[in-house]
Amino acid sequence: DTAVSQTPKYLVTQMGNDKSIKCEQNLGHDTMYWYKQDSKKFLKIMFSYNNKELIINETVPNRFSPKSPDKAHLNLHINSLELGDSAVYFCASSQHQGSSGNTIYFGEGSWLTVV
Amino acid sequence: GESVGLHLPTLSVQEGDNSIINCAYSNSASDYFIWYKQESGKGPQFIIDIRSNMDKRQGQRVTVLLNKTVKHLSLQIAATQPGDSAVYFCAENIGGATNKLIFGTGTLLAVQP
Question: In chain A, fewer beta carbons within 10 Å around the N or the C end?
């Protein structure tokens, strides 16, 4: 009964390929996020969606396209993968957007390695 | 596992001792702060939070202190156990409509038996 689940956990792919990471939350939350963690463990937000609507887009290259078919799912599609895309990608969710005090819960991460 | 050449600030403590992990945040308008624990190979896990109208909050074995004057946050862990070994992140919420968390660089807590 994992709250925020993402697949795949590990992904090794060649430069230039297109890949997707899927995320689902069963918490009934309205808001979902994608975060990227680099090799130095630095965590940075990429996107947030609230009820399928894009709220935050942190100047991420347009090779990254999030898609939210419903408020329980937020998938991340990456085109033309580059070596620098290698990182751990975390999906997360919170009950709603706005007004602080709104805890964000993270998934277990998807380790992407581009070779 | 850890990357070769990864140099996080590290706090090494003996099992049973108290640990204090410090964090400086950047935005004086931030109104909500969270500490997360990240074990190897896992996602960040919520530990404790505090709003800007408080200066101290206690949980089970953990206490968070907030000093808004110097924009400083600390996490105190009492009677540190081997299971507390992890990377700890503070995060600040700059408030407003977007619930955007800004994470600190992380501190590796190593508990020696």
Answer: N
CB B71 within 8 A of CB B24: yes
**Does B74 touch chain A if contact means CB atoms closer than 8 Å?**
no
- Kindly report, residue by residue over B18-51, the tens digit of the pLDDT: 999 999 998 888 889 999 999 999 999 999 999 9
Nearest to A102 by CA among B12, B15, B99: B99
* B46 contacts in chain A (CB < 8 Å): 103-105
Chain B residue with CA closest to A4: the answer is B43
A-chain residues near B42 (CB < 8 A)? 108-109
Give residue-wise pLDDT tens across range A18-46.
999 999 999 999 999 999 999 989 999 99
CB within 8 Å: A98 and B105: no
CA pair distance A84, B102, nearest whole angstrom: 21
Location of structure tokens 């946050």: B73
